[in-house]
Each structure stands twice: as C-alpha cells, then as structure tokens.
Recover the amino acids of this structure.
C-alpha cells in the first residue's frame, strides 16, 4: 500500500551509469574485447586472470574514447590522471581489487539533457556471475563465473543529484546510449550488459536531502523508471509509518516489480583506494586533439 501523502515528498535522484567501451582489446591486456563470445572463459590470459608476475598495460584507445565523450558533453578534460586500486573481495575480481580511478578522473563536469555531470572515469569491468538454483545446478545451489568480461574497458558516468522524476532519469539514460553509439565509443546494449544503470534515490519534504538508497540491477530503461517510482513510494510509506530509511544497496526484481535489500551501502573508505603502483601516471597535455 502506497502512502497517501507520498506526493508531499520531493525525490532527488543521481545516476551512476556503466558503459563498456568499443575497443579491440581489453583495458590492460591484449585479450579480445568481444561481447558476442558465447564460449565462457575463452578471452582470458594471465594478465586479466591476475597470475603472479603479470603486469597491466593501459589501453590508449579506451582513454581516448572517454575523453571524446567528455568533449561531446562540454566537460573539463584532465591534463593529468592516474589509476587506483579499489579493494574488495568477490569471485568476479580475480586480483582481489579492481583497477579504477578515484582522485583524478579523466573527465569532470558537463551536462546532458540539462542534467549536470559530476565525473566520468575509466576502469576495468568485472567477470559475469551466474547463480543457478538447485533445480538447474543438479546438487545444491551453484554460482558460475565467466571471466570473458573481466578486464573489458568500462566507463563510469556519475551525475549530480539534480534529477527529480523517473521520466527524466530514463530520458537521460536513453540520450547517453545514443551518444555512445553516435561517437562509436560503445554499443551500450543493455540486454547484453554493455550498459548498466544504478540509481541513488532519496526523498524529503525540505531542501535537506534525505537518506540515500542505491538501486542496482537496472538493465532496461523501463526498469530504471519503474524502480525509481517504486522506491520513491516505498520510502514515503516507511517515513509516513514512523520508520527511518536505511542507507543501503537494493536490487530490482523485474518479475515482482519491487526493490529488495541486498547489503549495507559501502563508502569510499571501505574500498581503501590507493594509486596502482604497476601503472604509470599519465600527462595528457597535447596527447589527444579534439574539436568541439
């Protein structure tokens, strides 16, 4: 049951959108970047599987395509950048950390459809996990991991929390997909996982922002809009019932059309970012030439 007074709350939404980049090889090795490969664990090598003694090498074309997106969005392009290690343990990260960017992203600022952009940074994608229930796995539940996607160049775009309705959030994501395709930066097919959307949602009756909840697993534009609408209503019902919103990560159940709790929301401190000692710092002054 949705609260009767939900219309008195103002939702505030920020988006985090991951898009795989269209390059011949992965982000830090020479393995093929092929989203259409059906045979699992085929496009892998000692580098992307984190074998001891291997070293990453930066994919210049991936850097260029993120900067190209920045030009199209009217953003500020970095003259200096570096890669960081984002530390967490999960089977989809062979190294035990993800190579990402923290303090010095490639792109800052800009806008699309009137939505201000905070930053765009470059990182490596994770492997693809598939969870099988006992009925499919044979004996007990099983999780299978395909590492073909591990190490694929991944662009992450973060917006400012300036979106106030589900329709604009969906329109922004659609426009970004078109831009990625027009520039040749990525195919952004959501059904293949080449573009994934996460929404940070809070509601408040004042100018002070409420407690933020992140909703993941949004793999279609319709899911983006429906999940935001549902989560806005859910939070209103909780607050009107005298409860408090918990800062957490929630998933989206497409079949039931509801969000569900997954885990407590991590902060940047939890990931213990530090500069990757195996990768050089980049001075980008004059390396790429773009026309606005």
């Amino acid at each position: 049951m949705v609260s009767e007074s939900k219309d008195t709350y103002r939702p505030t939404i920020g988006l985090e959108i991951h898009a795989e980049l269209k390059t011949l090889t992965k982000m830090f090795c020479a393995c093929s970047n092929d989203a259409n490969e059906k045979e699992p664990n085929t496009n892998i090598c000692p580098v992307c599987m984190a074998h001891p003694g291997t070293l990453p090498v930066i994919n210049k074309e991936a850097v260029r395509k993120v900067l190209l997106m920045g030009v199209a969005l009217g953003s500020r392009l970095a003259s200096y950048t570096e890669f960081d290690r984002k530390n967490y343990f999960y089977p989809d990260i062979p190294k035990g950390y993800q190579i990402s960017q923290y303090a010095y992203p490639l792109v800052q600022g800009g806008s699309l459809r009137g939505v201000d952009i905070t930053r765009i940074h470059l990182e490596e994608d994770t492997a693809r996990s598939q969870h099988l229930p006992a009925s499919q796995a044979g004996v007990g539940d099983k999780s299978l991991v395909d590492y073909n996607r591990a190490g694929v160049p991944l662009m992450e775009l973060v917006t400012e929390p300036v979106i106030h309705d589900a329709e604009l959030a969906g329109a922004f994501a659609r426009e970004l997909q078109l831009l990625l395709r027009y520039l040749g930066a990525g195919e952004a097919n959501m059904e293949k996982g080449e573009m994934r959307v996460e929404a940070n949602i809070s509601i408040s009756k004042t100018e002070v922002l409420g407690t933020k909840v992140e909703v993941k697993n949004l793999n279609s534009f319709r899911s983006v809009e429906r999940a935001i609408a549902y989560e806005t209503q859910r939070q209103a019902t909780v607050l009107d019932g005298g409860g408090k919103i918990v800062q957490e990560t929630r998933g989206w159940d497409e079949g039931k059309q509801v969000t569900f709790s997954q885990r407590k929301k991590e902060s940047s401190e939890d990931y213990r970012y530090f500069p990757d000692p195996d990768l050089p710092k980049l001075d980008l002054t004059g390396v790429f030439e773009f026309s606005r």
